[in-house]
C-alpha cells in the first residue's frame, strides 16, 4: 500500500507510536512521520507524497478503532448527565468530552490532544481590531453572530453543569477559553463519516485532520467506512507526484466560511467566493398599470474573471440574475417589446448593477495600509477585504464594458431603424 509522508511541528513526533499502539493489529498502513519543525506554505501542517500516487490509489487508511466519535461519550460518567439536557446534540456532547479528555494524563488520546495547537486562529478568535477591519463586509456580521452564539451556548449550558456536577465538570477545566478552543477544534478538524451501522457521525480522525484544504484537491471522497476492512480510506481522485503536498477537500466552501471556521483563505480562484445580491423587485420603477411585483430575490455574483462569456447580453455576469431583471422590466411595458426597447432595458439593468456595486465598493472604505507587524487576525481580515474588492471591481468593470457594448449596439439599431 502506498504512503504519504506527514510533516508537522515537533509535538507530533510521537504520533506514529500513538497510532500503532492505538490500532494494534488493526493498523493497516505504516505512516512515516517527521518530527522536524516544518512549515508548509504557512500552514504549519500538511502531507507530502513520498512517491508518485495515481488516481484510485489509497493515500491514507485509518482503522475505525482510533476514530473519535460519539460512542466514546456514551462510555463516560458524563453521558447520563448530558442525555438529560433537553435538545443537546451529540456534537455538543463530544465538544464537552474533549474539553476534559484534553487534560486527562491517562487518556489513550493524550498524544493526539498533545499534538493539537494551543490556538487554532480561526475567525472565532478574531480580536476587536480584526473584526473592525472587516467593516463593510458581510463577514463582520457573520463572525460577530457566530461568537455571540457560542457565548450564549456556553452561558446556557456550562455554568449549570459545573455547579450541579463539579466532580464530572470541574470549573477549572470548563472555562470559556477552553470551550472556545474545543469549538474551534471540532469546527476545523472534524469530518462527517458514515459508519457500517448506517449512521452519519461527526468525528475527529487522527492524521487525516491535519491534511490541508485546496480548491483543487487530490482527495475528495472519503466519508464512508469500508465494511470489508472496517477502516476509513482516502483514495485519490487526482494524481499526486512525489514531493508534492497532498490536499484534501473540506467541501465547496467560500473564503468567508473558511476564515470563520478554519482560519485561512485558500490559494487560487475559488468559484464559491460570491457577493450576495438581494433584489426587491417592488423597488423597480413602474407605472400604475404595471404588474405589481413585491418579492425579494437573492443572487450570488462571482468574480467575472471566472466567466468565459463577456459578450453582449452576458458580460461575465450570472444569467439567472440578468434574466430576472429583464423579465421584471419587460412585464412593466405590457406590450410587445422592440429590439430597441430591449437594448434600452439592457442598458438600464447594467447601469443599476454598476451603481449598486459601486456603492458596495465605497462601503468597503479606503484601502488600508498593510503592515508585516500586524497580528494574524488583522492580516487575515485585510486579505479577505482585498478579495471582496477584487470581486466587486470585476463586476463593476464588466458592467461598464457591457454598457459600452449595448450603447454601440443601440447606436447601430437607431441608425438602421
From TrEMBL:
Molecular function, one GO term: protein-lysine N-methyltransferase activity
CDD domains, per the entry: SET_LSMT
Stored InterPro entries: SET_dom_sf, SETD3_SETD6_MTase
Superkingdom of the organism of origin: Eukaryota
Protein name: SET domain-containing protein
Amino acid at each position: 500500500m502506498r504512503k504519504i509522508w506527514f510533516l508537522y511541528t515537533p509535538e507530533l513526533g510521537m504520533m506514529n507510536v500513538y497510532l500503532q499502539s492505538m490500532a494494534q493489529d488493526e493498523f493497516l498502513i505504516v505512516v512515516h512521520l517527521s518530527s522536524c519543525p516544518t512549515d508548509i506554505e504557512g500552514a504549519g501542517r500538511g502531507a507530502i507524497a513520498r512517491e508518485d500516487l495515481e488516481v484510485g490509489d489509497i493515500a491514507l487508511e485509518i482503522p475505525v478503532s482510533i476514530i473519535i466519535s460519539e460512542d466514546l461519550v456514551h462510555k463516560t460518567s458524563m453521558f447520563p448527565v448530558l442525555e438529560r439536557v433537553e435538545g443537546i446534540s451529540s456534537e455538543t456532547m463530544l465538544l464537552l468530552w474533549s474539553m476534559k479528555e484534553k487534560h486527562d494524563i491517562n487518556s489513550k488520546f493524550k498524544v493526539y490532544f498533545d499534538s493539537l495547537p494551543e490556538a487554532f486562529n480561526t475567525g472565532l478568535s478574531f480580536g476587536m481590531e480584526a473584526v473592525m477591519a472587516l467593516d463593510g463586509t458581510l463577514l463582520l456580521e457573520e463572525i460577530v453572530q457566530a461568537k455571540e452564539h457560542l457565548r450564549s451556548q456556553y452561558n446556557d449550558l456550562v455554568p449549570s453543569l459545573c455547579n450541579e456536577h463539579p466532580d464530572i465538570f470541574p470549573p477549572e477545566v470548563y472555562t470559556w477559553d477552553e470551550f472556545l478552543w474545543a469549538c474551534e477544534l471540532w469546527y476545523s478538524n472534524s469530518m462527517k463519516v458514515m459508519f457500517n451501522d448506517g449512521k452519519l457521525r461527526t468525528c475527529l480522525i487522527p492524521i487525516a485532520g491535519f491534511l490541508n484544504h485546496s480548491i483543487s484537491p487530490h482527495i475528495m471522497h472519503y466519508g464512508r467506512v469500508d465494511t470489508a476492512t472496517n477502516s476509513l480510506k482516502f483514495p485519490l481522485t487526482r494524481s499526486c507526484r512525489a514531493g508534492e503536498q497532498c490536499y484534501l477537500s473540506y467541501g465547496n466552501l467560500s473564503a468567508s466560511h473558511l476564515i470563520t471556521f478554519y482560519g485561512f483563505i485558500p490559494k487560487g480562484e475559488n468559484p464559491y467566493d460570491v457577493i450576495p445580491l438581494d433584489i426587491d423587485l417592488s423597488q423597480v420603477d413602474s407605472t400604475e398599470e404595471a404588474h405589481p411585483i413585491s418579492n425579494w430575490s437573492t443572487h450570488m455574483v462571482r468574480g467575472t474573471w471566472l466567466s468565459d462569456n463577456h459578450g453582449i447580453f452576458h458580460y461575465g455576469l450570472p444569467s439567472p440574475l440578468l434574466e430576472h431583471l429583464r423579465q421584471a422590466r419587460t412585464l412593466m411595458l405590457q406590450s410587445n417589446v422592440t429590439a430597441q426597447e430591449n437594448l434600452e432595458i439592457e442598458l438600464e439593468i447594467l447601469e443599476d448593477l454598476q451603481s449598486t456595486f459601486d456603492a458596495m465598493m465605497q462601503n468597503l472604505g479606503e484601502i488600508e495600509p498593510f503592515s508585516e507587524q500586524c497580528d494574524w487576525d488583522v492580516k487575515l481580515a485585510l486579505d479577505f477585504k482585498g478579495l471582496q474588492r477584487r470581486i466587486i471591481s470585476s463586476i463593476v468593470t464588466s458592467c461598464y464594458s457591457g454598457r459600452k457594448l449595448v450603447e454601440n449596439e443601440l447606436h447601430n439599431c437607431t441608425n438602421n431603424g
